[in-house]
Amino acid sequence: MSEPEMTIPHLFRCPISLDLFEDPVTLCTGQTYDRSSIEKWLGSGNLTCPVTMQKLHDPSIVPNHTLRHLIHQWLQLGPQFHPGNSATIDSLAALKHTLLSQEDDGSLENKLEALEKINAFFSDEYCSFSRSCFLQLGFLPMLLELVFGGRTTEESHAVSNNDHMKFVELAISCIMKLLHLGNDDLEALNIIKDDESKLATFVLLFENGTNSVKSSLCHVIESASSSETTQELCYIFGNTQKLVHEIVLVLVQNCDASEDAVKAISALCSLNSNRESLVREGAIEGILRYISMISSSSGNETTQIRGQNKKLLAPMALGIVVKLLELESGRETLVNHPNGVDTLVKMVFSVKCDQDCSEGAVEALSLVCCDYMHAREQAIGAGVITKLLLLMQSHCATTTKSKARMLLKLFKSKWIQMSK
């Protein structure tokens, strides 16, 4: 055999001719052959699958577009193709078989090993080719099904099992890496909305999973909000009471997953139809507590590092508040919160936060103070006048100064009345 032939991946060879597939087609047994080879076999009167020798209950053949696409991509690489990629393709096919197998080679231990190998591919020198193979071989829907589908009630209540949780962590890690390749494959996430049991498993994992699992599930929610094809799933996430409640709990725990919870809530806020549910399940209270933690972050090195990360998300957190305050229920929730107005005032002008925070705080105060006299009194009592004057003298954006000026006019008459 010549060198080019030696580098042909096993997956790309017809089991009959042993040559590179020209027109791959699949039988009802799941085995793939080159069209010309299998047609000759069937034309000779054979009614069995050449590889498995199973009797064909359905003699029809179906084009294997996935394999055709992979072969085309492989051929396009031409001289740039690295011989190691042949092994990559065959290895991925073997890993997929292990993950789907119900036999001895599909034990949990072997599946954990397979997932670890899959994760390793993403740091490979040839990861671009590997990732394309993952998508073309259908790893994303398969992993989603393994994590969220086919679970009995008894199995679902065993999610705290260490080995199973390790499997979930590794599998979701793979899922996230595949989702990061682009929006074209996000539609696969709809598997979660199409089956109530899958959604229930998603919520259960969020409730009982590790911080790593919760962070990854928050990223799944973010991904669902980024594509029109998954907008319905984003709506379902935002209106699943238990899930939203669990996200808010993570938000206020000051753990490594808290920052991802902020991003998840922000993603859910992208749909107007989710906002009432977010208010009802305590998102405003959770965000206010999160903002308070930002403004008072100090202490040991770990806390300081976490605090620095939080500062980067402070504008996003205030953006969530602004969106939720567009609802009357949101405004009522904030003004009735013991520290709601005070928390916003602290963010109007703070050395620990940037100009975007100030603009968000000023806009949020405008929304509540226009409607509620009690909110104006609280804001003045918390020192908002001084904060706004300092903000006006700073190098903040013109739009922020304009909003600050309007707030000062709003407070003027009440401030004079309170000063008498």
From TrEMBL:
Alphabetized InterPro entries for the sequence: ARM-like (IPR011989), ARM-type_fold (IPR016024), ARM_PUB (IPR058678), PUB22/23/24-like (IPR045185), RING-Ubox_PUB (IPR045210), Ubox_domain (IPR003613), Znf_RING/FYVE/PHD (IPR013083)
Catalytic activity: S-ubiquitinyl-[E2 ubiquitin-conjugating enzyme]-L-cysteine + [acceptor protein]-L-lysine = [E2 ubiquitin-conjugating enzyme]-L-cysteine + N(6)-ubiquitinyl-[acceptor protein]-L-lysine
Keyword Repressor attributed: no
Organism superkingdom: Eukaryota
Enzyme Commission identifier(s): 2.3.2.27
SUPFAM superfamilies: ARM repeat, RING/U-box
Involved pathway(s): Protein modification; protein ubiquitination
Annotated keywords: Transferase, Ubl conjugation pathway
Keyword Repressor included in the entry's annotation: no
Segments forming domain U-box: 7-81
Broad class of enzyme this protein falls into: transferase
Function description: Functions as an E3 ubiquitin ligase.
PANTHER family: U-BOX DOMAIN-CONTAINING PROTEIN, WDSAM1 PROTEIN
Official protein name in the record: U-box domain-containing protein
Originating organism: Stylosanthes scabra
